[in-house]
Request: fold
Amino acid sequence: QVQLQESGPRLVKPSETLSLTCTVSGGSISSYYWSWIRQPPGKGLEWIAYIYYSGSTNYNPSLKSRVTISLDTSKNQFSLKLSSVTAADTAVYYCARTLYYDRRFDPWGQGTLVSVSS
Amino acid sequence: QSVLTQPPSVSGAPGQRVTISCTGSSSNIGAGYDVHWYQQLPGTAPKLLIFGNSNRPSGVPDRFSGSKSGTSASLAISGLQAEDEADYYCQSYDSSLSGYVVFGGGTKLTFL
Reply:
């Protein structure tokens, strides 16, 4: 049973870079695609990006200029960096396994709330 | 503004049947891309409920069903139960702007 767990700072200052890591257990990261999705408090879901173990990536056009997704197969982890954050980036950030042929997300991590504030 | 449009809320009485619509366009649902549905219980991560328009993952009751036609999709929940009170999201893929994943704005299911 694959499980995902997000980790990283819960508080980030405006204009700085948000960094999160997702650790995959119960399966190898060297298959499937892996995604980041976020949900601002009280709002809906927004896909951020996904990555394949080969390094192939795809980004949400609205965030592309600020986002970097990467992967470390030796640690079975993948990561998210979001630069120049503002209060609008405050959200629960989820990582999820992604099936490329239909882009479904399953399973999801439990999510981590990241707040942007000085 | 979400690319996929869902009603903000629906309601029903225990035992009743409700449907949640998800309306897209010719660059996503209408282009043939699969629609998936997620259930998000309060304070928890979303969970895959329906994949590939109408398929249920193992463990999802057959009270939940999905369909797709043209540029829209629907989630139906029959025999409403208290534990079904949650937020529901549809998701697909859009071929515009080099292609990206899109979600509906979410629908909150409440009991009458």
Observations:
- The two ends of chain A are 39 Å apart (CA to CA).
- The mean pLDDT of chain A is 96.
- The first strand of chain A starts at residue 3 and ends at 7.
